[in-house]
Amino acid sequence: MAEIIHLDAETTIDEILKVLDQDAAVIIENVISMDAVEALKSDLAPYLSKEAFGRDEFTGFSTKRIGALIARSNACRELALNPLVINVAEQYLNPFADGYQLHFTSAVSIGPGETKQVLHRDRGIWGGYLPRQVEPLMSTIWAVTKFTKENGATQLVPGSHKWDKERKPDDTEIAYAEMNSGSVLLYTGSILHGGGANKTASEIRTGVFLHYALNWLRQEENQYLSCPPSIAKELSTELRSLIGYSKGGYVLGFYSDPYDDEAKFESVSPENMFSKATDSFDSLPNPEELVDKTS
C-alpha cells in the first residue's frame, strides 16, 4: 500500500521541497494549534450548516462545499498567510513565474455515505495548454477534523506527477491523507488525487482548501467577486496582494479608475484603490531587460 510521507512542523523548507519533487504530496503534522482549529470551526459553522451539497458525483451528493473564505473567515485569512506554506509555495513555484497568488479557497465537508471522487489532476482546469514542464499549483488541505481512510481522507497517488498521462493506478498505488486536526497536506497540481469515500455512520470530514498558483494564470475562484473591494479594504496589504489586488508583472493586472476625471490613476496597481503602497513591479526595468523577459 502506498503511503504519504509525514513530516513535523520544524522540518526545513528544503526537505519539504525534496519530498514534493519526489512524491508531489507531503503531510506536515500539527502546524497550527487546537485554538486555531476551533477558530476555523467557529468561522465555518454558519456556512456549513446550510444544505449546500454537491450537484453531481464529482462534487459529491453528500459533500458540502463553500468558498469566499478570505471574505468570510478571519481564521482562513491567517491560514492563507501561514509562513511555512507561503515559503514552500514561493520556492516551489518560483521557477515558473515572477510571483504567485491565492487561486482557490473552499471548505469541504464529506458526510457519511459519500462515494470516492474520481482521481484527477488539478492542472486540468486550464485544459491541456500548459506544458508538462510547468507546474502551475502548490495546493493545501488543512485538516479541521481528523482525516481517516474510513471518513473520507483524500486519495493521492504518490509519484503520479511523473507518469504518462494515460497510466492508471492500481489499488496498491493509492495512498490516503490520514492526519490529525491542525495538520496540512501539501500537494501539486500534477498529482492524481480525489476525495475519499466516507464509510462511517456519523463522522463528517472537514478540510480547508487553499491553493496557490502562478501569478500569470487565471484564478479558479474569482477573488475580486468572492472578496470585492468593499471587503478587501479590511485586509492587510500582503493578503490583498496574495488574492490579486496587485500587479502580477510590470503591466499584468493594472487598472485605470473609470471615475478619475483628473487621470491620477491610469494604468496603476489595484493596490492604489486602498493606499499609496507600491508593489514589486512599480518600477519599470530598462527596455532591454523588459524585452528580454518577454522573449
UniProtKB/TrEMBL annotation:
Organism: marine metagenome
UniProt keyword terms in alphabetical order: Iron, Metal-binding, Oxidoreductase
Name of the featured protein: Mitomycin antibiotic biosynthesis protein
Classification of source organism: unclassified sequences, metagenomes, ecological metagenomes
Location of the region described as Disordered in the Swiss-Prot/TrEMBL record: 276-295
InterPro entries according to UniProt: Phytyl_CoA_dOase-like
Any GO MF annotation of the entry: metal ion binding
UniProt entry tagged with the keyword Metal-binding: yes
